[in-house]
Amino acid sequence: MSVIKKSALGKGLGALLAENDTTVSKPELVAPQQKVETAAIGSVSFIQVDQIEVNPFQPRTDFDELALGELAESIKLQGIIQPLTVRKMGDKSFQLISGERRLRASKIAGLTEVPAYIRLANDQEMLEMGLIENIQREDLNAIEIAISFQRMVDEVGLKQEELGERVSKNRSTVTNYLRLLKLPPVIQAGIRDNHISMGHARAIINVGDIDKQLWIYRQILEKDLSVRKVEELVRELGKKPEPVEPKQVNTANPHVKRVEDGLSSKFGTRVALRIDEKGKGRIEIPVLSNNDLNRILEIIG
């Protein structure tokens, strides 16, 4: 079997996986009979699928069943072109670093063993390699990417500049993804479920008021607004003076907060419950347009 030196691939996954003087066998020369017991760390070997546990640091939680089925059919015909990457945990125990889609599809295809690079990595390296591999190689939605970026900042301790270098993106791109996580949960879900695009979301982020963000989001869904239309809408809202917010009473009261959260969820906008020390007060539901008023009146019934 011929052996080649694995060269660094630059920034990103290649640099993370590259190790000084690490040798790897050419994947196309790996024979099925080569088993892990005789393989060196860093080589490609065939491993029993029931010996591989899923990477607990995997950022992707949603796998398209149809796409997995198509990949499984391809594997039946062509085999696995790109080996998985695992770390050795024991004599016959391995943990997946990257390639969960390939592993899942291999099981669907009925494979009992799969080709894999065997690595040694600690938990932090596992997290970083798993996140970067998925960011660069998987079709993650914008929210999954943003969550992965945030985990690398929080758990790996990378600064945004360092993160950009790892994933070959400039700092402004990284910042734009991270800002998505500041949007209300309903809008984040809309991005995740492809109801709105990254362009829509970037326009909404420029509006500081949550009520207006939610109103714009509803307008996008109801009127199928383009990104350009949303940008125009945001500019128009920016020209209007911000209303003076009355002083809120008892905001620290957990009961008041629970009621506000429940009403906000029901009406799809931020609702304020103003209560004085005597228990008297009012409920405030912001209305941003006639259509918005009609929507709220229909909910009230």
From TrEMBL:
InterPro entries: Chromosome_partition/occlusion, HTH_ParB/Spo0J, ParB/RepB/Spo0J, ParB/Sulfiredoxin_sf, ParB_dimer_C, ParB_N. It comes from the Bacteria. Keywords: Chromosome partition, DNA-binding. The keyword Chloroplast does not apply. Pfam families: HTH_ParB, ParB_C, ParB_N. GO terms for cellular component: chromosome. SMART domains: ParB. SUPFAM superfamilies: KorB DNA-binding domain-like, ParB/Sulfiredoxin. Residues 45-135 form the ParB-like N-terminal domain. Belongs to the ParB family. This is Chromosome partitioning protein, ParB family.
